[in-house]
Amino acid sequence: MKDLEDKLKLNFFRCHRKFLVNIDKIQGLNLSERLIVFTNDGVGTISFSRYKQKELNKLWRRG
Hints:
Blueprint lengths: L1 H6 L4 E5 L2 E4 L3 E5 L4 E4 L6 E3 L5 H10 L1
Antiparallel strand pairs: 1-2, 3-4, 4-5
């Protein structure tokens, strides 16, 4: 996973030990339930680590 993360650094963020997400595809964040909502209905939602919450929120708001 680390190799893939290094190759996709530009628009991708490791929000959990199991997930790399494309920041451009995020529609919103549910901070109380720690869920990422995507623009594509096929994906739905995935959870993110509480340790990554602040950084993810900052990256998503910036984009």
